[in-house]
Here is the input.
Amino acid sequence: VGMLVNSLYIVIDRIFIGRVVGAMAISGVSLTFPIGILIMAFAMLVGIGAAARISIKLGENKKNEAENILGNALVLLVLVSAIVTFLGLVFVEPMLRSFGASNNTIGYAKQFITILLAGSIFQIIGFGLNNIIRSEGNPKKAMTTMLIGGICNIILDFVFIYILNFGIRGAAIATVISQGINMVWVLYYFLRGNSMLKIKKENLHLKKDVVLSIFSIGMSPFAMQLAASLVNIILNRSLFIYGGDLAIGAMGIINGIATLI
Here is the structure.
């Protein structure tokens, strides 16, 4: 249900951008997909790895060790998001050019992804910790997290793009605010909510064995996301060479509908 709402948001987002901003804006957003996939890859590296380890520890009735993994995961998510944001903002234009951005689309793509990169900490922490909510046996709460983010995104898209006429920046701002709400919701759950595990100050320092155990499991989905990003880069470059800017936008629309399906 959560994935369905988020997928629906992607389609509605493209509708607003296409009708209010224009076709080239759709192409610009489509060029940022590989970076979006990479951001998600780092969230999965920590989130899925930590969730699996926590499930194992809870199965062994080792709650303290599970909370230690949770604390380490939060610190890792913060560090990873800082690295992603810094490197992304420094190399954003060269990356977009290498992905197939032209003079017609680079402006739209840069406006959109710069805002998303600046707020990537919200997405990485929110998604990463949401996996842990599911792993401690509370899938309904994890679904609620995704529903809140998806519904907020749809409403804010309408406000920022259609009413306030912020253009493609409006779509990015709506996404970042929604992800910020998600992150606050998830952090509240682990700090003040009815969670089995709690974020405790004494667990907020990295331990080598815990970090390696998280990465050992998280590396598999991380590698799969990297591969998906590479495929998308190759596809966009080929579309630009053989079909032009609008071909990239058309494929972006198809990808949105495919995600919904």
User: Anything to note?
Assistant: The chain has eleven helices and no strands. The longest helix spans residues 208-242. The CA atoms of residues 95 and 211 lie 29 Å apart.
